[in-house]
Structures are given as C-alpha cells and as structure tokens.
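Example with several molecule types.
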Amino acid sequence: MTERPCLIIDGLQYAKWSERIFREMHDGGVSAVHVTVSYWEDFREAVERLIEWNRRFETHGELIMPGRTAEDVRRAQAQGKTAIIFGAQNCSPIEDDIGLIQVVHDLGLRFMQLSYNNQSLLATGCYEREDSGITRMGREAIREMNRVGLVIDMSHSAARSTLEAIELSQRPIAITHANPHDWHAALRNKSPDVLRALGESGGMLGFSLYPHHLKDGSDCTLRSFCEMAARTADLMGVERLGIGSDLCQDQPNSVVEWMRNGTWTKSLDYGEGSAGQAGFPPQQEWFRGNLDFGAVAQGLRDVGFSEGDVRKIMGENWLDFFERSFGAAAA
Amino acid sequence: MTERPCLIIDGLQYAKWSERIFREMHDGGVSAVHVTVSYWEDFREAVERLIEWNRRFETHGELIMPGRTAEDVRRAQAQGKTAIIFGAQNCSPIEDDIGLIQVVHDLGLRFMQLSYNNQSLLATGCYEREDSGITRMGREAIREMNRVGLVIDMSHSAARSTLEAIELSQRPIAITHANPHDWHAALRNKSPDVLRALGESGGMLGFSLYPHHLKDGSDCTLRSFCEMAARTADLMGVERLGIGSDLCQDQPNSVVEWMRNGTWTKSLDYGEGSAGQAGFPPQQEWFRGNLDFGAVAQGLRDVGFSEGDVRKIMGENWLDFFERSFGAAAA
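Resulting structure tokens for the full complex:
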C-alpha cells in the first residue's frame, strides 16, 4: 500500500465528451486516455471529429491536452491534466488510400483498428462467419502503419486476422480493450492462442471493463475480474497488460445502435446485446467512471499483485508501449 | 566576395516536381523552398497533393525533407538537403470551415494566401474591380492563423485587403512573391503604401523572378532587378526582403491556364498574359532555375549590397521569419 500517486492510463473510452467528464478524469487522476474518433466515419468525417477535439483543447485547456507522444503523457501527469490520444476503431478514415495513413498520423491518430466487427478492406471482424485473414491492402497498411508509428489495434478483429497481424507487423500491436475468451466467452474476447502470441510479440492487452466483456456481465465481481487479470499475467507476462475500460459515459442508446449498425445495414444488429437488452448495459457497481480506477488498483493488490505490478498495469505499461510505438520507425 | 556558402531559401516555387528538379535544388545549394500545394484545390484535393509530397519524401529522401520549422531548414542546410515548406495560394483548402486551419497546419502547411486573384471567402484578389477588404470570415481566419502559426500570404490579394490583413494580423504577414508596382506596373505588384506597411509590421516581401512581374518581362536585366531591390531596401529595410522566385519549371502551359481559370469560369482568362502570349513566358536568361541563385546574389553585390545584406536577402531573413512565424502563438 502506498500513497504515492499511481500513473493511470485508460486504453479506450468513447464518452459523450463534456467538462463534467474531463473534470472526472482530472479528479480520478487519469493522465491519458485513448479516445475513439471514428467507428464508421470516412476521412472527411473523422477530420470533423478531430476539429471538435481541437475546440475542446482550447475550451478545456486546464483539464485536457493533445497526447501524441509518451512525453506528452508525462507532461500531462506533471500538470495534473489528461492527455487525449486519438484512435479509430475501424480503418474507415483511410478509405482505400494508403497515403491517408501518414495523413491521419500527422493529424494525431496513434491507434487504428484494422476492422470493426465486420470485414474491412484490411482484415476480418470478430462477427463475420469466415475469417479470411489480412487482405492484400491490409499487408500494405500494416507496413505503412509500422513506418509512421500508427499502432495496429485488433480489439474488434477476428482471431486469424489478429494472429496474422501480430505475425506481419514489425512492431508490437495492441488489443486495447478486450478480455480472455476462456473467462467470458464473448465473440469480442480473445483466445489463449491470440493472447499468447500478443504477449510474445511485445504487444499490449487492455482489460475491458465493459459489462458485455465481463463474466456475469454487470454482476461481475471485482475479485473475479482481478483473478482473471492474474491468470492473464501468468499467460502473457505482467508487462503486457493495461486497462482499456471501453467507458461510454453519458452516451444515449442511439450511439451504441450506431456503433453496431453504422451505415452498413438497414436491419438492426444487436452486436453484443440482444433485442431484449439493446442499449448500453448498466456498469458493474465497482466501476462506473473515471473516479473508480483506484478501486481496480486495490482489487489487483487484493489478489496478490505487487505494488510495482499494479502500477505497471494501471499505466506504466501503456506509457512504455507509447514510447516504443508512436514515433516513426528507425530508417 | 566570399567563398563561404550562403543560405539560400526560395519563398515560392511550383515546379513539375521530379528528381531532376530536386537535384538542381541540391546542386544550387537551395536549403528550403516554399512550394504550392493548392491553387483551387479544396481540402480533400489538397490532402492528395500532400500525399504526393509524402511519397516524394520517401522516394527522394537523400535530396528533400519536410520543412515545418526553422530548425528543419537548418538541419536541411547541414545535411545538404532541401526543406520543402507547404503553402496554399488560396484559402480553398479550408473551404468554409475555420477548424480546417489547424488541420492544414497539423498537416504541414505554413503559408496560406487569403485570396488568389478573385474574391474569396476571406479577402479580395488583385484582379477584382472592387476590393471590399477582409470579410467577416477573413477576420476570424486571420485570428486563427495567428493562433496556430499559419502565415498569411497576400501575394495575389488586392491592396485594401492586404493593408487590412497587415493591420488585423497580430503577427507579421508575408507577400511571398511580388515586386514593387512603381518598378513594373503589373496588377500583381505592390504599391509603396502596401510595401511600407508590410515593412513596418515586420513582414516579408519575396522578390519575384517571374517575367510578368519584371520590368521589361523576359528582357529584364539583372542590374535593373537588383537596383529595384536596393530601392525597396531603402523603403522597407533590408531585413524585410527575401526571394520568392515563382519558378514553375517543366510545367506545361495547361498548368498556367488552370492556375488562372481553375473551375470558376467557362471562358479563358489570361491573367498576366494575353491571347497572344497565353503560356508561361520565357525566363530571363540570368535566372532559369535553381542553379542561378548565385547570379542573383552576385547581382545584389554589384549594386552595392554588403555581403551581410546579400546573405540576409538570399535566405537569412526568411529563416528568421520562419522562426518567428511557424509555431503556435504564445498563450
């Protein structure tokens, strides 16, 4: 037990952004958050999301700042601010143009998923029946993402595509928000094979705190979550682990509907939900928002993680990964 | 006379870019060039031009590199490369969206003209009959350009608009490529009032070497050009002067036609040319390309500029201006 403040980095959030949320991040001691700027947005639409963020940086500059490097995160921590790191949950912002990879990196994107649930131009999503692996353009995109320092995120991709991405990428990749499939058998959660390969390649897993990714959903206990984390540390090594809460605070249910359906279907797809539970599920009582990372840290201590390991999982591993990942590849 | 190499910076070029041109820049000792990425291109089209440049940086990395800061220019000089600084000759890349100003700056643009010959959303161009000055959006754009460090360039704007831009801008502006109107009465050249105000505000004039901006056109003598430079130094101060050659090497005449007509007319506008001389005019014999900056420097010495002043005009003034202009405004 220590009173020394712990670096807290969240590997994924998509809130309805507001001063209330930014103040909660500040009060919760969150020094960096990877935020989603695109699910289905094409390049021009993603640019509009970035413009909205640039306005927020001006309006709420005492609480948030752009996060483009590990150094930005350290500066945010020192100043008591939250560094906002942009990412896309799909490859839609690069459309069919490999040149847009450097462009979105120039605009601050540091993570991009190769596919979101469905087949994309680059890879297969986790809800497709067939997983045909990384496509021709996918191989090119991986090489280009490696070159410029845009992290490959396979959170919503299917297993073969993910294993191939790990294999093809010259730099470690991330699964920013998911859990082990053998703890909770959601299609979004990851098999031991995938997690082992991810760990061996120096990649990162961010543990999701989204109820649909948790054993017993909204009733999941903190102890069950932390025991799962301990087993995953045995599988992957504690240095490969972080948090990716998948918090979607203050969002109306129309947003989860849009995440699932975008513009690709005229039917309603319920994704991880169901017709009976179509909206955002209620958060488990021990993690409702940015004030609750301390409770997660305590839960990790309680299942036997050392203080040093807790600090790694809560933020230091992500910071080390940012350091290795966000810059251009050595020539 | 000295053998010590002189820093050479060119304040405007729009060549048909090729290894041949880049090698000529290298052989001519040109350490930085402000290149045009947009005349009429909207945001998405300008992004495609940037993507083409990103490819050139990969392909010709031994000759050229991105120029986003004064420090990049110093590094280019030290490495014998040419730093390429992006600029737009019109405000078309920001469309009607003030948020795109920061976006294009993030993508590397460091200069943007508020209007190109015609009325724009921001200002009046030099070929309009009426010059109504800086528009409502123009005032907002100037403030935002000041904030992010995107230089206001009024080369193709009309006089009142230019004087108002100088007055409204909190940071010095540039006229990257033009000459004094009282030396050669082209609509693109600038009145003593404009040049005096530009000088007093700490702005920069890049002397154009484009025949239509020269007294006697393609027959202009180096001596006449350099005497004009000396008189302009008396008017504005030698620290306010640089070169902006407006070189358009290897471009077909279809390009000058497109510069003049864009998509705004179905008629043919001849701009500075005429029906009888519709294409690019022949370059004066003493300045045909990037190998000839040394001749200009010698011409300046020959009309009495000191070695120190020659070095200022050939590049040091631009470098100092870049240092003051390309970063975000102090908070």
